[in-house]
Recover the amino acids of this structure.
């Protein structure tokens, strides 16, 4: 089987998975209540969320440029923005292809190679992973999710059942012992285990990425951009909450919870997070917040589709700039010099 055939099969499977998850997310939905929920929304807050989504793309582009500057100081913010916007647009059609797409776009400028641009993605993803983990910790400590874990899962599991406690301790012991054995047998595993080599490569990439974040020339600007990016995501969830009368009992920390949970939906390898985002967010809101499934799906749909619209508009405008406007401006500049 050729690589092209494998890619086609992989994209087809991702598309089927997205359709299946959309089906399960909207199965049994009361469409009258769903449409009513959309009509009752304050669309000014939706517009604010969309503007914030644009800002998130802008700051992501600015942050990426800091990683590309050591490769070539002439790379502009606009070039990075166009590449990022097109990358998001590509992700709507082909899962995870956006990373490759934006590196290809910035490589078209001849200011850096595709391989060098792709290498910077590891640094970005490393810090984003750390932010997601920190957000999860805050979510457990300061939102209803933490109370839900304790009251609905942990206490029922251990109340009168010491077996559950022993199972938890056994799992912890298993991971500790496994870690020790892996450390002692790393050389043997590198030789005989392909899976271990892949895992070690990914882990090394994450660690090296974090080290680069802390030692790069513009590390403080990079960290500030990262905080602004995640603040934008947080604000987007908060604006959608404000737009829906049924969800105005939720607070800023609840918005953080929905941001972290929603990020899982975007990570699932399906086109543009379709289906996965809707399913995960709506199914999480019901047990923890007691929000009806219809309302949860309205929230998920507004949050997800508002971003999708932003990706389409920004990506289309960037395509026009990259392939039509920018080449003409370069030709005129060269003609004026000659």
């Amino acid at each position: 089987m050729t690589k092209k055939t494998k890619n086609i099969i992989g994209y087809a499977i991702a598309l089927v998975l997205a359709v299946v998850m959309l089906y399960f997310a909207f199965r049994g939905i009361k469409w009258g209540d769903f449409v009513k929920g959309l009509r009752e929304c304050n669309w000014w807050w939706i517009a604010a969320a969309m503007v914030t989504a644009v800002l998130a793309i802008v700051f992501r582009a600015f942050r990426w440029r800091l990683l590309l500057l050591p490769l070539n100081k002439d790379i502009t913010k606009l070039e990075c923005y166009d590449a990022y916007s097109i990358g998001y647009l590509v992700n709507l059609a082909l899962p995870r292809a956006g990373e490759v797409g934006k590196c290809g776009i910035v490589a078209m400028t001849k200011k850096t190679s595709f391989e060098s641009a792709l290498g910077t993605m590891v640094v970005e993803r490393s810090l984003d992973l750390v932010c997601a983990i920190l957000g999860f910790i805050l979510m457990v400590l300061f939102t209803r999710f933490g109370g839900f874990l304790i009251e609905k899962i942990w206490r029922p599991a251990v109340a009168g059942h010491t077996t559950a406690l022993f199972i938890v301790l056994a799992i912890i012991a298993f991971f500790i012992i496994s870690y020790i054995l892996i450390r002692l047998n790393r050389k043997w595993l590198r030789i005989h285990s392909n899976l271990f080599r892949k895992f070690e490569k990914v882990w090394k990439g994450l660690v090296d990425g974090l080290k680069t974040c802390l030692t790069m020339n513009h590390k403080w600007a990079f960290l500030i951009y990262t905080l602004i990016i995640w603040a934008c995501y947080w604000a987007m969830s908060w604006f959608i909450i404000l737009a829906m009368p049924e969800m105005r009992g939720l607070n800023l920390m609840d918005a953080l919870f929905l941001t972290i949970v929603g990020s899982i939906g975007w990570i699932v390898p399906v086109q543009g997070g379709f289906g996965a985002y809707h399913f995960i967010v709506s199914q999480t809101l019901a047990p923890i917040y007691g929000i009806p499934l219809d309302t949860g799906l309205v929230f998920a749909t507004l949050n997800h589709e508002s971003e999708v619209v932003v990706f389409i508009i920004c990506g289309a405008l960037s395509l026009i700039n990259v392939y039509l406007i920018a080449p003409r401006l370069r030709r005129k500049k060269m003609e004026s010099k000659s």
Notes: The chain has 14 helices and no strands. The radius of gyration is 23 Å. Residues 31-36+43-142+220-337 form one domain. The mean pLDDT is 75.
